[in-house]
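As a warm-up, study this chain.
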Amino acid sequence: MIAEEALVNELKQKESQAKAFEVLVNTYKERLYWHIRRIVLDHDDTDDVLQNTFIKVYKNIDGFKGESKLYSWMYRIATNESLTFLKQKSRKMGVSDEELKNRMVENLQADVYFEGDEIQLKLQKALATLPDKQKLVFTMKYFQEMKYDGISEVLETSVGALKTSYHLAVKKIEAYLKED
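Now compare it with the structure written out below.
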């Protein structure tokens, strides 16, 4: 794998941009796909958001200053694109964010790409009850096994606040799972 700094330099050079972007996509598409998928839940929606994420990365690479890791910068874009997508989708459907989350979880059972069992479905229902920030922190920590420092870079939040959000999310999920 190409070093991140060299990749960024190649992405910023017109003559090497296309090849470097292909390397970037091949290197990060799977991790970004699963990050987005855990937010928007639907496979087709995830593909759309992933495509939008890479378009934004391509268009804005010149603005990347290297103050964070490239990976963190792309995750931040993917996260923002995912949340924006969900807000637009709820507006188009004429439903609240809460109603949209509930519908998305219900649609998981019919999604041929969802490989989870009953327990995974229950966990997704519990996650749908969380505020966006807690859901993001829990997802990144629990599913993606990211360290708090990495999550802090992506969400631009202090480690202390992230630990609090994660703790609250865990408590709410535990309470939800005990209800049934």
